[in-house]
Structure formats: C-alpha cells, structure tokens
Amino acid sequence: MTLVALVAVGGGVGAGLRWLADVLLSRVVPRGFPWAILAVNVSGSFALGAVTGASIGWPWLTVLGTGLLGGYTTFSTVSLDAAAFWREGQVAKALLDVGGTFALCALAALAGLGLGGLAA
C-alpha cells in the first residue's frame, strides 16, 4: 500500500473516531459550548505531541500524524462554532472557544511531547 493510501485510510479512521467521540461526549457534557470538539482537539494535540516526541520516524509519523490525527482533530469545526457564536452576538464565547482551544491544545501538545520523549 502506498503512503498516500495509508494516510487516506488513517484520515478516514480519524474522522470516524472524531464523529464517534463527538456523538458520545455530546451526550454527557453541558450544552451551549462545543465541549466535545474541544476534548477531541485537546486529546488529538496531546497524541500528536506524544507520537512526535516518541520519534517514531517516517513513514509512521506521517500516517499517524497527518492521517489518523489530522482526520481526528478539526480546526474548521472550531472556526465554524466560533463564527456562529460571533454571529449570535456571543463574542466572549467565540473568543473563549478560539483562544481556549488554541491554548489548551498547545499545552496538550507540549505535555505529549514530554511524555513521548520519555518513551523515545
């Protein structure tokens, strides 16, 4: 199987996992804020940090990072949610969504890099 096919399969699996996580988490988190998507993006950022920190090397970093985790995480959904909040006049919620997502994902990636580095 070629690398592009493996990345595509990984992306499909990641997108399916994101959908499943969103559906399941949305049942248990409070409504009114995209908590499930935030959890998906933070966990995906942590996982990408861990995979990168573990220095698994090519081609697995490409398959897992670009494919699986690229399909799992979603910046476009965060952008759409924030735009909807903004449009509804909930500017603070829009800024919290974007700023909180970025900050928490960066911290999660940093933690993942540290943990992955321990495994390397």
UniProtKB/TrEMBL annotation:
Its main location: membrane. The chain crosses the membrane at residues 33-51, 58-78, 98-119. GO terms for biological process: cellular detoxification of fluoride. Na(+) binds at G70, T73. It catalyses: fluoride(in) = fluoride(out). It is a multi-pass membrane protein. Na(+) is not transported, but it plays an essential structural role and its presence is essential for fluoride channel function. It is found in: Cell membrane. Keywords: Cell membrane, Ion channel, Ion transport, Membrane, Metal-binding, Sodium, Transmembrane, Transmembrane helix, Transport. Belongs to the fluoride channel Fluc/FEX (TC 1.A.43) family. This is Fluoride-specific ion channel FluC. It comes from Microbacterium oryzae. The gene is fluC.
